[in-house]
Write a structure and sequence with these properties.
Blueprint: H1 17-37, H2 47-74, H3 81-114, H4 143-149, H5 166-189, H6 193-223, H7 234-265, H8 275-302
Helix pairs in contact: 1-2, 3-7, 3-8, 5-6, 5-8, 6-7, 7-8
Length: 308
């Protein structure tokens, strides 16, 4: 028949989610800008209300879109070998994009930690040193960064967190969670539903504990005024952006695993078809590896001044 499918590719049905997601993401962005920079209203709503309305729309889009993808899988619409290979390539490329995202934050941290000093002084013809726009001695390279850091790393006034307290505990927690998610993955491949359930529960619990301990760590840094996030603090900004985005990824990965746990308990994963969970496991291992680099390069080497 003319209507028969003669290829292995999955052509999606018409869906409202791309349009709904685009509109709600724009509303969320506009709300964030108005909330941060203006007391004015937009579309008759204040910034916070507009932001949270957009956020609710984005979350609703995510839930609805992924629900449709799961339903397509259960109907066998996106389970051909070609589609499954495409899904794997897509997840690999997504994780690679996340790698480059974290490279940016590592780069920002290393730019200060490795090179806190300034370049050669800019001298005038009369033998005096030129002044910059702020009236401070001018240097040929790293002028603004040198004055912000005081030529040392960690900067003066910064009291870095000890890596041998909660950061070390969190490192052990994430390494342990990597073993439990591997346990759950192995259980899926052999049809062990009990092993899958307890492996997933253990991993999710460890992820929640990690997030709780990191919240305590942030509270300690801010409440004790060890270092600030803003006020021109290169150290605080780069530290909180790198570790904070990793913490966000832990929360996202935990939610990813929770969804997979419920799907597994409903029998939606089999020994041969479980890529939804496999993608979550890949993501979780990526989160583990990023934390190992964060712990070694930022908490241990960077915080102790061993990079400069």
């Amino acid at each position: 028949m003319a209507g028969d499918v003669k290829h292995d590719y999955h052509l999606v049905n018409p869906s409202p989610w791309p349009l709904v997601g685009s509109v709600t993401a724009m509303v969320m962005m506009l709300g964030a800008v108005v909330w941060r920079y203006s007391e004015q209203k937009l579309f008759g709503m204040s910034g916070p209300w507009l932001f949270f309305l957009g956020l609710a729309g984005v979350l609703f889009t995510m839930a609805g879109w992924w629900r449709d993808v799961v339903r397509e899988s259960l109907r066998g619409e996106n389970t051909t070998s070609v589609v499954r290979i495409g899904l794997r390539y897509g997840m690999v490329l997504f994780i690679l994009s996340e790698v480059m995202f974290f490279v940016a934050w590592f780069w920002a941290f290393f730019a200060g930690a490795l090179f806190p000093d300034a370049g050669p002084a800019i001298m005038l013809s009369d033998g005096t040193q030129m002044l910059n726009a702020e009236g401070l001695p001018a240097y040929l390279q790293n002028d603004a960064k040198f004055h912000a850091l005081g030529g040392e790393w960690p900067p003066e006034g910064v009291r870095p967190l000890s890596p041998w307290g909660l950061p070390l505990v969190n490192t052990i927690i994430l390494l342990l969670s990597g073993t439990t998610v591997t346990w759950a993955h192995h259980a899926v491949t052999i049809g062990d539903k009990e092993g899958f359930k307890w492996g997933m529960i253990s991993t999710i619990g460890l992820g929640v504990i990690f997030s709780f301990f990191q919240a305590i760590e942030y509270y300690e840094a801010l409440a004790l005024n060890l270092f600030a996030f803003n006020n021109g603090s290169i150290y605080g900004s780069s530290f909180f952006m790198a570790t904070g985005f990793h913490g966000l990824h832990v929360i996202i990965g935990t939610l990813f695993l929770i969804v997979c746990l419920f799907r597994g308990l409903r029998g939606q994963f089999t020994e041969d078809r479980h890529f939804g969970f496999e993608a979550a496991a890949w993501y979780w291992h990526f989160v583990d590896v990023v934390w190992l680099f964060l712990f070694a390069m930022i908490y241990v080497l960077g915080n102790q001044g061993l990079l400069s």
